[in-house]
């Protein structure tokens, strides 16, 4: 539901403008069952919240939890491979580890962490007071949590999924994967998929409809632009995996034979469906990282982003071409020479817009007054690591070379340089850069630098040697290697495997230091002072409000005149000398904005329907696996929750502006006023 | 806006399902294929019912635009009833086919056929739920015609589901295998 601003309303909800007090919301009778949860403190204020900032923080916390879980899985894998004939894990458990490591990192860490940034920052960056559909936003978060928990309960219920994150069929059919792990995987991802889809719709509408007055598309911050591209990718990629997962569920739980070769099925169907989703997914993972460094690099180079338009359009180009390259994951499956040639060329083409971005970032730094803060270090680290990963990617585009490298550690090296080097380093840059915005305190820079260097060294020690052992032919997903076949001299597999394992622990210590840093900054007797309003001399709208922002974000919705609006308010060019000089501080700008704060600010009220609806889904999913009766029970809760949701007014005690049961639309005109 | 985006996403959902069906439509035993099993006259009638419901939906949207809550609710209810008739027809059709021996797991053709048309049926059902919720909301709201835009959104969804059915009906039923 939109945030609504209606000064002519007969009984406006009073909000104290200019003082930072949260808007007061009057309690009302919810439809039928319980009183509406309107408290603004305590656990209820989090569980039933529809505030995009609280949801963003919760996304972040949960994703961080899954990051640690996925990390522990990775460490176990590296422990197993540290020596010959590893005995840390059994073969079956090893299969579960690498499957769940990849699934957790992709679906439960990188994607939701990107969603955390997008949720928190997009409304702030475009000068809105919330997203377009706050309750759907809450629903998305709870779906993600419910799906993630559901997926991980499989560890305790007979074993997790073990078919690799792409779950190739018929390899993952009940015959070869008899536990319920794959069922949990298919249903869990289905539920988190709902989160991605609703999130995508929500953010696209927010970005296109709710920008502050004066902010044309080409005056949007680059972060917002890239996130917009990602949301379009999600919008069209998620339904394809939905189909694939449904077919898989029918296959495994209801006896259909979509992927059963004996019944005449075509095993390539799964591969096509999966990779039509899977390749856009690659860009869904990495573009948020790009988005973050595109904000961080200009700020710490004290220069505007070089070629803003080029970055925008190359991002969009990646979004388009990303749809035409999926079959390069299938070069080894016998597609035929024409398909292979076409996808090979398309894959080389996509390197162009990616290269454009690298050039733009480099030229942004060129000649700038670079400040090497932790955030900047992570951003530069991204540019370097991603370039390495991108270059090894080009070697995969050449189909003959790819056929040689398929299923070796070379591939593992490549995608970790792109995903870890591209996405994860970007997210860490974002943590350090926006931490003072979200929590009002600067993370410790000294610990931050240790964090960065340990992660950087650990990452290169872990994934660098994988290029060597991959080209030597060590296959991925093998639970052990033997001394007898390890080779000699520089190319000795044993040596490089040990290096990689040591590296992975250095990497883990680096990540651990990040958690230490959070604790150090926020511990009760911390002497860390409150962060200044504008600690980095930033350029975008989110810094024109308090840190952390008030519940309604802005007292007055700022009017935008330029790209990098905040920078232009702080600095002016002296026309006589041609010099740029500071004309206002962040405090002055904020005071001026607050002085003309809006009198009446409506915020959407909390609701308990999103969480009920979201947690009814795993009930249905357990039903699919164990007992059909549970499907009915879950389905009834879903039905009830949808009606309850549809009939509940978005603003307590105000019956206006309801979305239909399916979470469809809202009043566009009203949505743009806010 | 959101509904348009959602429908864009839905296009790929049905795209995937239709592709699966087209891939597998020929894979069945000799006597239980699409040419033997479909009752085209019956399905044509139920398709006609669904298309008529689009007409009543248009009437509901126009009544909502004129702030006539009573007629809006009437047309919404009729639309929901027509939709329910279609779903009922589908259930009947499935039952007949099942009696003739075409179960969900009989062949690749049957699995993909039931999945595709079943998904469409679920969409129609969700549409009916939305229509009923709309009637409920309209009854509660104090200001007449205040939900016009929401009615239009649901209308959009409803028309989309109809259009998808036209595609499915053509590809699945009319074009001989």
Kindly describe this structure.
The complex is a heterodimer of chains A (674) and B (177). With 674 residues, chain A is mainly alpha-helical. Helices cover 61% and strands 1% of the residues of chain A. Chain A has helices spanning 42-47, 52-82, 91-125, 134-153, 181-209, 222-253, 268-301, 308-321, 337-365, 374-397, 399-405, 409-439, 445-471, 493-522, 565-570, 586-595, 609-625, 628-647, 668-673, and strands at 571-573, 580-582. Chain A has a two-stranded antiparallel sheet with strand order 1-2. Chain B is mostly helical and 177 residues long. Helices cover 81% and strands 0% of the residues of chain B. Chain B is elongated. The interface between A and B is large, with 50 and 43 residues.
Q: CATH topology of chain B, anyone?
A: Four Helix Bundle (Hemerythrin (Met), subunit A)
Roughly how much helix do the residues of chain B carry, as a percent range?
Answer: over 70%
Rounded mean pLDDT of chain A is 86
Give the integer mean of the pLDDT values of chain B.
Answer: 88
Name the CATH superfamily classification of chain B.
Answer: Cytochrome c oxidase, subunit III, four-helix bundle
Gist of the model:
The complex is a heterodimer of chains A (674) and B (177). By secondary structure, chain A is mainly alpha-helical.
Any descriptors?
heterodimer; A: 674 residues; mainly alpha; Cytochrome C Oxidase, Chain A; two-stranded antiparallel ribbon; 2 strands; 1% strand; disordered N terminus; disordered C terminus; B: 177 residues; 81% helix; Cyt_c/ubiquinol_Oxase_su3 (chain B); Cyt_c_oxidase_su3-like_sf (chain B); cytochrome-c oxidase activity (chain B); cell membrane (chain B)
């Amino acid at each position: 539901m939109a945030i609504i601003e209606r000064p002519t309303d007969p009984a406006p909800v009073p909000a104290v403008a200019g003082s930072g007090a949260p808007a007061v919301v009057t309690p009302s009778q919810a439809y039928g069952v319980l009183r509406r949860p309107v408290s603004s403190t305590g656990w209820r204020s989090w569980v039933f919240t529809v505030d995009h900032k609280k949801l963003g923080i919760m996304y972040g916390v949960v994703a961080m939890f899954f990051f640690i879980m996925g990390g522990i899985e990775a460490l176990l894998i590296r422990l197993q491979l540290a020596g010959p004939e590893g005995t840390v894990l059994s073969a079956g458990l090893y299969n579960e580890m690498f499957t769940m490591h990849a699934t957790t990192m992709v679906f439960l860490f990188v994607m939701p962490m990107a969603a955390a940034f997008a949720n928190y920052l997009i409304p702030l960056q475009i000068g809105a007071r919330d997203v377009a559909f706050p309750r759907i936003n809450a629903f998305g978060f709870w779906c993600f949590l419910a799906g993630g928990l559901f997926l991980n309960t499989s560890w305790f219920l007979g074993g997790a999924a073990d078919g690799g994150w792409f779950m190739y069929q018929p390899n993952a059919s009940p015959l070869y994967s008899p536990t319920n792990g794959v069922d949990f995987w298919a249903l869990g991802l289905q539920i988190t998929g709902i989160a991605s889809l609703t999130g995508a719709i929500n953010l696209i509408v927010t970005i296109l409809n709710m920008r502050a007055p004066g902010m044309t598309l080409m005056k949007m911050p680059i972060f917002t632009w890239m996130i917009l591209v990602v949301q379009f990718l999600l919008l069209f990629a998620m339904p394809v995996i939905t189909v694939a997962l449904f077919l898989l569920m029918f296959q495994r739980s209801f006896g259909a034979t979509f992927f059963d070769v004996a019944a005449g099925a075509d095993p390539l169907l799964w591969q096509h469906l999966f990779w039509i989703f899977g390749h856009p997914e690659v860009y869904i993972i990495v573009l948020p990282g790009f988005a973050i460094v595109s904000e961080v690099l200009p700020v710490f180079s004290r220069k505007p982003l070089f070629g803003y338009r080029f970055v925008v359009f190359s991002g969009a180009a990646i979004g388009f071409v990303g749809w035409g390259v999926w079959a390069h994951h299938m070069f080894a499956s016998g597609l035929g020479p024409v398909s292979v040639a076409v996808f090979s060329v398309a894959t080389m083409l996509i390197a162009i817009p990616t290269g454009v971005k690298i050039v733009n970032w480099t030229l942004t730094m060129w000649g700038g007054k670079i400040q090497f803060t932790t955030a900047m270090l992570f951003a530069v680290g991204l540019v370097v690591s991603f370039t390495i990963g991108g270059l090894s990617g080009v070697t995969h585009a050449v189909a003959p070379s790819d056929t040689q490298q398929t299923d070796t550690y070379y591939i593992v090296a490549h995608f970790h340089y792109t995903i870890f080097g591209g996405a994860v380093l970007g997210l860490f840059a974002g943590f350090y850069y926006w931490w003072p915005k979200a929590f009002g305190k600067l993370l410790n820079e000294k610990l931050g630098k240790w964090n960065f260097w340990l992660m950087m060294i650990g990452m290169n020690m872990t994934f660098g040697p994988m290029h060597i052992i991959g080209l030597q032919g060590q296959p991925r997903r093998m639970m052990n290697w033997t001394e007898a076949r390890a080779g000699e001299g520089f190319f000795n597999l044993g040596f490089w495997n040990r290096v990689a394992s040591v590296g992975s622990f250095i990497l883990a210590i680096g990540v651990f230091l990040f958690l230490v840093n959070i604790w150090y900054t926020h511990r009760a007797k911390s002497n860390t002072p409150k962060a200044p309003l504008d600690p980095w001399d930033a350029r975008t709208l989110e810094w024109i409000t308090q840190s952390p922002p008030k519940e309604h974000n802005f007292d007055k919705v700022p009017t935008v005149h330029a790209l990098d609006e905040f920078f232009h308010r702080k600095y002016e060019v002296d026309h006589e000398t041609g010099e740029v000089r500071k004309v206002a501080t962040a405090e002055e700008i904020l005071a001026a904005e607050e002085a003309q704060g809006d009198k009446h600010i409506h915020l959407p009220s909390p609701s308990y329907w999103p969480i009920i609806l979201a947690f009814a889904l795993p009930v249905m999913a357990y039903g699919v696996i164990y007992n059909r009766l549970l499907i009915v029970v879950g389905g009834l809760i879903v039905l009830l929750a949808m009606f309850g949701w549809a009939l509940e007014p978005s603003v307590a005690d105000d019956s206006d502006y309801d979305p239909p049961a399916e979470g469809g639309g809202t009043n566009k005109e009203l949505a743009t006023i806010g | 806006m959101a509904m348009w985006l959602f429908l864009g996403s839905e296009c790929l959902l049905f795209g995937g399902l239709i592709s699966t069906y087209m891939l597998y439509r020929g894979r069945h035993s000799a006597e239980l294929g699409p040419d033997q099993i479909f009752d085209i006259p019956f399905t044509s009638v139920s398709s006609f019912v669904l298309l008529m419901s689009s007409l009543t939906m248009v009437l509901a949207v126009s009544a909502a635009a004129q702030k006539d809550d009573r007629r809006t609710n009437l047309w919404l209810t009729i639309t929901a009833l027509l939709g329910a008739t279609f779903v009922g027809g589908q259930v009947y059709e499935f039952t007949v086919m099942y009696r003739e021996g075409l179960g969900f797991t009989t062949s690749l053709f049957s699995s993909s056929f039931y999945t595709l048309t079943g998904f469409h049926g679920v969409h129609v059902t969700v549409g009916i739920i939305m229509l009923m919720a709309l009637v409920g909301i309209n009854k509660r709201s104090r200001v007449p015609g205040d939900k016009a835009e929401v009615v239009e959104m649901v209308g959009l969804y409803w028309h989309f589901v109809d259009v998808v059915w036209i595609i499915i009906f053509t590809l699945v039923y009319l074009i001989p295998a």
